[in-house]
Amino acid sequence: MNKNLLAVNTIGDTDNDENRIYYENSPDYLKVSLAAAMTLGFVPGMFYRNACLHCVNVLLTYDDGCRANCAYCGLQKSREGAYNEKSFIRVEWPVFKTDDIIDLTLKKKEIIHRICISMITHERAKEDTFNILTRFSSELHCPVSILMTPTILKHEDIDKFKEYGANMVTVALDAATPELFDEFRGRGVNGPHRWEKYNDILNYSVSVLGKNRVGCHLVVGLGETEKEMIYRIQAVRDKGARSHLFSFYQEKGSKLENHPQCPAGQFRRVQVARHIIDYDMGRAEDFVFGEGGKVVDFGIPFKNVAEIIERGTAFQTTGCPGKTEVSACNRPFGDSSPRNIRSFPFELNAADIARVRRELLEYE
Q: Rounded mean pLDDT of 132-146?
């Protein structure tokens, strides 16, 4: 990558935290997803099939990086390399001045419908998020979301997020079961995250921001069955939140770099199930599951399932909404190659619908 695009972070001459010199760190600087950097014009590039990003995703940055060690994450502390050289979701996240991000976002009002601040596990992240949120909510034209790190938050921090202008918050639970969470994010990788803490913050966030104003990230393919994931989606919905789905996609250099991506059929059936549950068309306990916990009946009339498939919305990227109910955070090709799209960042065409219809019937 062109190093001129990066704000290179430098550590002082001493390892003493009290004397350490911080240079291009948050809140004055932020990492920006490659898709957002392209959309804002920081870097050149084109999206496959003219996909258009509608949410600017920014990530807090510190020269000593994230304290967590999630097995599938490119930012995990045990991964080799300097923090600012690590990929995240398989792409580089260049660093830019917060002032410049605000300026360019305002110049893209017709495209950008939302901006999202992603926290990392770091002792400075909470206060810096308050700072950035205050600026974004007062200076930008679009609503602001927070992708929170529950491990470093208290209930009163959620109150502050709302007070300072966030209209949605999200918890990246990721794993469908407490056992998988602990294996890949907690004790199994010597990480700081705990299932109970994440669910506590998720519950409290709904009580503060209200129904449908809280999201929960879930990653399909970490080792759970379709039934386990669908019952987790139902549990999230029963809290008043909605699930944002990702298909697991290996990050080179992470502990799960050799873990296979789930079969397309598995992800498609979970996508349909999420759509049914999150829009209150049916419940998980009405589904019928066959061998290995695979869905064989969605618990609603077949004609309604056929209508969901034909509309195609269920297979588009799920996330915080923008000007419409469809996700503004459409993360082009964030969980698959453009040659094998899992979450579509645009409306599906007839060929796409035909493909997902075939994949729904694949049982491996």
A: 98
Helices (H), 190-301: 195-209, 226-239, 264-278
CA 56 to chain CA centroid, nearest Å: 12
Is residue 64 pLDDT above 50, yes or no? yes
What span, in angstroms and rounded, lies between the C-alpha atoms of 27 and 173?
A: 25
Q: For 181, list phi and psi in degrees, rounded to 5.
A: -60, -50
Q: Which amino acid is at 264?
A: A
Q: List, in order, residues 6 or more apart from 136 with CB less than 8 Å away.
A: 102, 115, 117, 144, 165
Contacts 24+ apart (CB under 8 A), 229-232: 229/176, 229/270, 229/273, 230/270, 230/273, 230/274, 230/277, 230/284, 230/287, 230/295, 231/176, 231/284, 232/173, 232/176, 232/177
Task: Identify the CATH number of the domain defined by range 21-360.
Answer: 3.20.20.70
**What does the pLDDT look like over 176-198, one tens digit per residue?**
999 999 999 999 999 999 999 99
Contact 58, 31 (CB under 8 A): yes
Asked if 40 contacts 142 with a C-beta cutoff of 8 angstroms, the reply is no
Identity of the residue numbered 164: Y
120 conformational bin, left if phi > 0, alpha if psi -120 to 50, beta if neither: beta
Please check whether residue 40 is in contact with residue 105, taking contact to mean a CB–CB distance below 8 angstroms: yes
pLDDT of residue 20: 44
pLDDT at 86: 52
Lowest-pLDDT choice from 76-80, 159-163, 204-208, 353-357:
76-80
The confidence score (pLDDT) of residue 6 equals 33
Q: What residue segments make up the domains of the chain, in order of their start?
A: 21-360
Structure-token pair, residue 104: 């360019």
* Nearest alpha-carbon partner for 203 in 178, 231, 169: 169
